[in-house]
Design brief:
Blueprint (H helix, E strand, L loop, with lengths): L13 H15 L16 E6 L14 H10 L4 E3 L5 E3 L19 E5 L14 H12 L14 E8 L2 E6 L6 H5 L7 H4 L20 E7 L3 E6 L12 E6 L3 H9 L5 E7 L4 H4 L5 E16 L9 H9 L3 H8 L5 E2 L22 H10 L3 E2 L5 E3 L2 E2 L1 E5 L5 H15 L4 E4 L4 H4 L2 H4 L5 E6 L10 H4 L20 H12 L3 H18 L3 E13 L2 E2 L18 E2 L2
Helix pairs in contact: 8-10, 15-16
Length: 551
């Protein structure tokens, strides 16, 4: 196939960038038209282009965004969260709160009423026993849980009836409502048959309660999900949902442009394709603000990056606005925080990044990093050199790496590129902290809640026996204290001040170097009805059961 895209992007003038951004935002905000009614009989299929291959099918185990795209269609949580941050009951009949008595006034006793008539894909009934089993499995010693943050506080789980379950919290934990929106229930009757849930056959052939069930998996190409005839909610309106993985971004856009995929989500359409994509006949493209960020993630146990002064100098010596403007065509939102700008906890007053290589050099001089052979800085026998890794086939990230290398070379820093295939880099290399520095897109919240304990708490470092996503191996006692305080109160005003202080410390320590908050370009064919972006979903396939083709 002939490649139609340039490997070098022409720089835009500042005026051009602003004009393009304004036009893009206006285009993404077109008034909605009246939608045709869903079909009376389910029909057809939708092919969704995603940029990586899902490989983790047990939703309680560590995974990335594309894995969650699979989970949210095959499994169900007790409740979901809509684009406005409202909790919507799924397996639960209602969302517990202080107001309705589902959560006691002291935040310690939780009572959940479940929806009647829900069945697993194999026809077995979903009951309170499954909720109890799921929450206990997450805490089970030796189980490779995606996170135990919050779950580890659950005690005395009781099945009060087939559709009623309760438990006691060891201490109040405000983000737990949001965390449960991201906790998918698994079937007790299936998993309890396996002596080791880490290696259970279920992990390759999952059974859920979601709108779709696993049909066919072709490694390296696609997964076909088929409609669940007994789904308890709305839809699905199509027979099949095909998740087609296309790791090369040029190929991704080509398949969207030529119609090989019906819908493209999650950033597979890159910024340099925006102008052309917005003019394609028979296609709609929209700008979607995401809760995920592009960050540089240093491994703080790697000697050259363990020094805070080095991280501060790297940040000051990085022209990130140039990367946003030239490579991402000004579409991304620069940020200094790990909290999305739409969040009620976001601190807009953090120090703004200023590109200042002279200051960066002075910071390294003051910290004792002296230039040695070849101009590369050294300190105590450690050279200031490291690898930056990201996914192969992501053209824009690869170009950003080139600009980073040039910027940091001026500081006496030897940066090398060590990119890998997605299935490799996001495996043990990521979750077991084998990297030196990563260029990664990820989120730092507990669902829609701003609590980032699973990413920054010192007991969330997997390689040191913790459970969570602190792959940087960051430790700060003051951060641990603030995280604990933010989780212990349900008072939003108090939590906002706590998270403000937290953001100030993270901006100073730079356990991650924030580049920008994503504004992804999602696109779909004319005639596809029901697509709704959701900043609270890590992939915009969160409501695929509501999609259908206009007839």
């Amino acid at each position: 196939m002939t490649e139609l895209f340039h490997t070098c992007l022409p720089p835009l003038s500042r005026r051009g960038v602003l004009a393009l951004s304004g036009a893009a935002l206006a285009f993404g905000a077109r008034p909605a038209r009246a939608q045709p009614k869903p079909p009376e009989k389910r029909q057809g299929q939708i092919v969704v282009g995603i940029w990586q291959e899902p490989t983790v099918f047990n939703p309680l185990m560590p995974g990335i965004e594309v894995d969650q795209g699979f989970w949210m269609n095959v499994f169900s949580a007790l409740w979901d969260v809509d684009p406005q941050g409202n909790m919507i009951p799924q397996l639960a009949a209602e969302v517990p709160s202080l107001e309705n008595g589902g959560i006691s006034a002291d935040g310690l006793v939780w009572k959940i009423k479940l929806r009647d008539g829900v069945k697993w894909h194999d026809g077995a009934p979903f009951t309170a026993e499954d909720v109890k089993y799921t929450l206990e499995l997450i805490q089970a010693p030796g189980f490779r849980a995606r996170t135990r943050q919050g779950h580890s506080l659950v005690r005395d789980i009781k099945v009060d009836g087939p559709l009623s379950v309760s438990w006691r919290m060891e201490k109040p934990f405000a983000p737990y409502v949001a965390l449960l929106a991201d906790t998918y229930m698994v079937p007790k009757h299936v998993l309890e048959e396996s002596p080791d849930p880490n290696t259970a056959p279920f992990n390759a052939n999952p059974i859920g309660t979601g709108p779709f069930k696993l049909g066919e998996r072709v490694p390296g190409d696609h997964i076909t999900l088929v409609a669940n005839d007994h789904f308890f909610g709305t839809g699905p309106y199509v027979d099949r949902l095909v998740l087609k993985y296309i790791p090369d971004t040029n190929a991704f856009y080509t398949q969207f442009r030529t119609g090989q995929v019906d819908l493209a989500v999650g950033g597979g359409i890159l910024s340099n394709n925006w102008e052309e994509a917005s003019k394609l006949t028979g296609r709609k493209v929209v700008l979607v603000s995401s809760g995920s960020l592009e960050v540089l993630m240093p491994n703080l146990e790697f000697p050259a990056l363990s020094d805070k002064a080095v991280r501060q100098a790297l940040y000051a010596g990085l022209n990130k606005q140039e990367i946003i403007d030239v490579i991402y065509y000004g579409l991304m939102k620069p940020t200094e925080s790990v909290t999305p700008q739409e969040s009620w906890a976001y601190d807009a007053d953090l120090p703004k990044h200023v590109y200042d290589p002279a200051k960066a050099n002075a910071m390294l001089d003051a910290a004792g990093w002296k230039r040695g052979a070849g101009g590369i800085r050294e300190k105590d026998g450690v050279k200031l050199e490291f690898n930056v890794s990201t996914t192969t086939g992501n053209e824009l990230r690869e170009q950003a790496q080139q600009l980073m290398m040039q910027d940091w070379q001026k500081l006496g820093v030897a940066m090398k590129i060590n990119n890998m295939a997605p299935a490799v880099i996001w495996g043990d290399f990521y979750v077991r902290s084998k990297f030196e520095m990563l260029m990664v897109g990820t989120g730092f919240r507990t669902g829609p809640d701003p609590d980032p304990a699973t990413r920054f708490s010192s007991d969330a470092i997997p390689v040191k026996g913790g459970s969570g996503g602190n792959y940087m191996q960051y430790k700060n006692p003051e951060v641990d204290r603030l995280l604990a305080e933010g989780e212990a109160t349900f008072d939003q005003a108090k939590r906002k001040e706590i998270y403000r202080q937290l953001q100030v410390i993270l901006r100073e320590d730079l356990p991650v170097l924030p580049m920008f908050q994503y504004v992804s370009i999602d696109g779909y064919k004319d005639g596809l009805v029901g697509f709704r972006p959701n900043i609270n979903a890590r992939l915009n396939v969160w409501h695929a059961q509501e999609w259908y083709w206009a007839t």
